[in-house]
Amino acid sequence: MLNKLSTNTINTILIIGVVLLVVEIVFFNGGLVFSVLFSSVLIYLGWKNYKPLWRKVLFWIGIISLVFTILSMIAVRFLIVAMILIFLMNYFKSREKPERLEPEIIDNRQEIPDHEPLLKQKFFGDETTPKRSYEWSDVNIHGGFGDRIIDLSHTVLPHDEAVISVRHFVGNITVYVPYEVEVNIHHSALIGRASVFQYKKTKVLNQVLSFQTENYRSTKPRVKILTSMVSGDLEVKRV
């Protein structure tokens, strides 16, 4: 999410937070410094020798006191509100322009090293495949918020079985599969809907759905799609 922000925007948010902190300490609540120092001393004394019970009590009193002191700061509240607003802006933007993943055709002359994943894990934001040819490897995607589109129409699947695993929190998942590819799907969701080719499930409430094309076990190429999410829709289409 932060990689979508310009450096100037991040700097502005941080500067405003620092100014609010200074103003609060100087003009409104000078006791914040004492509270932070007192909590830090309790944490230090408790952590220095954690075995005795009274040291443990001191440590956790210090932790709780420090957390409440930090959360009571105007600057911290401002940063929390700013992060929530930025999150909502990026979420609605991702709804308008969903992430689109389009694997490219295999070129054996160029290969991705084993230590470099095909798709990087991102909790929020855009994710794309490399802008060059690569050898197919199974896809494992972790998502947070927003829609995801996975397009398999521009790649050559392996001779055995390709595996695509998508674990998502909130948002819709759309998968485009070529007509000649057999499919095996396992989908679980807490809340949402599912549409796989001609099969449609209007409501999914804490269920696991399975779908397999007729010739999946005997015909290749084939792909196994494993999806799980908290809330969102799954749609698998032929292209």
TrEMBL record:
Keyword Ribosomal protein attached: no
Chain ranges of the Cell wall-active antibiotics response LiaF-like C-terminal domain: 123-236
Keyword Ubl conjugation: no
InterPro entries reported in the protein's UniProt record: Cell_wall_LiaF, LiaF-like_C, LiaF_C
Record-level GO cellular component terms: membrane
Pfam families hit by this protein: LiaF-like_C
TM region(s), chain numbering: 12-45, 57-88
UniProt keyword list: Membrane, Transmembrane, Transmembrane helix
Superkingdom of the organism of origin: Bacteria
Protein name: Lia operon protein LiaF
Source lineage: Bacteria, Bacillati, Bacillota, Bacilli, Bacillales
